[in-house]
């Protein structure tokens, strides 16, 4: 079979365009309605996507005046979606800075069991002082410290998920013996950030543990991904940048002693689709016309850590912005926005228009054929193993993608036509089920007769 | 309408009898299978129960050799059950000692929205060093300190749930204004245990906040219940004890400035039902025959904080047990067990037999008529507002209760025959929706003409 595209549906409110909620078709309460997300999940499943994904941060972002604010907690929402779907993977964002390993490992184990092995965890360290102040801190921890904590968090979580061997349950009714205590392995972890005795109170799950996903592209983020991540979401504006990122991450993963094919790279794309290119561009223009620019300026000033009032709508960004190394928040997003503005010599107004669509992800307006071409070209030219599909407007943008782009990808042999038998999320992404760290691999028995080589 | 019984289905693994998993009918993996709980929830809904409930502790209890161990995380499981049911309330246990208010308040708000106002929180402080050691502590915090933290946790959670006024969302597409920032109220809480800036990132929910449930009967527990709880689960062995507890809690609630009718008292009952009394007793005997007594001795020694080997199976408890005040763990459970053993002069073996059935809750074997009589008598004689139904074997015990006891309670006018329109959990329990603490009550307008008195 041809190498297959991995598609992930990034679900967000009424769409990734910040003004999408103002369109006549949009429900401004959709982001806190289960039915909205059930509908989206089922569309994605009709499109035989590998997975769907919810971003998150444990704080209320800025002013509620601007756009639909708040969100259902992702693990809670995904659990409800698990029962409304059958095949699609379910990836929830959760923070290593503002959770405890025991509780979070248990929630993901529970979701993995309830969904039949479809849980994924987008691991974030959570930038910003707003979140920190909801958890007893005055300011956000330094970037490097957040990543150090994340690494220790993962080590503990992996120990917890492996604390039951797969065959720890005996269930011998006659003798009254339910489990085998010798196959239970408490982590007994004592480290810099955590002390966790364990074991977890959930048996090992269908996937062993959730698919591990990561999305930060800073130096710390890439080092973390190379060590732990099995799928990476990334924002890339050009195929050259995407190729460089792809090659870099694969080689870092190999250097970390892992199979580079066991980390899947998925750039984000905001497809704005029309039956002609002109129709697609007109659709994009309607969205841009609904942007409230005064909001955009404030948001941009916050991102760039500038004093309020520093930016002018019809001027370019100031020349004296600090380097990424001085930023303790979302480093890779900072650099991406600054580089985008400088490369295309955008005014603040133009930059806000671009960001309003995809917050730094690649926005692409065109016909279904053009969108499919773009996807195929990145996929076959070493820039992507798949895509994070981020419709500007939801549900209509996802519907259009599934009805018009997916059939083309199927015809080209890049995407399955149906799911087939139920599989785990990790199997969908072509990854092996991880072995339990407490179980020694079984030595292969001596062959009793010569084995013919298998030709692949 | 006659005063109505409140029924809660306490769902636990293959049943509340510790040996239930060994019966031929029982699935020893049931406790980690969604389908098992979906089936139970639907049986309870067929019986028009007000709610169902999951107990919990963030640790693996003792040896996995003894009985099905571990559990799906309750909020995760209840979210899945929310989509499989329509009317029944969903009460999850969560610990104030091992969660942060922001995350937990958000999860309950999300469940309340997803379930259409059916979320309830059984607030526990979590006894035991095992749990403490999963969260960075060497030993469990002292009992009084756990309750002090719980009270501050509740104050913060209530502020978070009230941080959006009910009408904070404007959704004005034309002007591009989504929310009203003046109706968002960050808690800005700084206290002994928590600093939480807020606001919550979830709008106010159908119930305002989840039904608040509590189950500790120690002095600290009762004081806490009088201040916060809207429903209380309790273990009582005799109607006299239950009446005393009921009267005490109602009067404490009144003394705390609350309406005593706004706290519902639900003792636990383990009904073992047979078509004749002899059949019920025989069923009870089968369960007792499956108990592994060597496990029971170890468990009892742990509960009573005795050295291993101190108890003898065919002797009574030692006379020199410490007073409740010396116990830092589950105080009220300790006293209940010791009093039960002394009152009925039980040997350790007999005590284990009694506890195996309901862990200190009232076990009652009889015909459906006798079970209904028991319930009616406690309900009408000031001992209960309803019951926490704890079948010894699941699902069969719940099935039997719903098929044979529920019809009798309905005939007697004590229990609704059908749910009628969808209601919130708090409405099912006859409780008002709480006002938002930031909204002043509207002064009633001067009547423009005389209002006739309403006769009820």
TrEMBL record, chains A, B:
The keyword Flavoprotein applies. Residues 28-383 form the Luciferase-like domain. Transmembrane segments: none annotated. InterPro entries: Diverse_substr_monoxygenases (IPR051260), Luciferase-like_dom (IPR011251), Luciferase-like_sf (IPR036661), NTA_MOA (IPR016215). It comes from the Bacteria. GO terms for molecular function: monooxygenase activity. Residues 428-456 are annotated as: Disordered. Gene3D superfamilies: Luciferase-like domain. Keywords: Flavoprotein, FMN, Monooxygenase, Oxidoreductase. Belongs to the NtaA/SnaA/DszA monooxygenase family. NCBIfam families: FMN_nitrolo. This is Monooxygenase. It comes from Streptomyces graminofaciens.
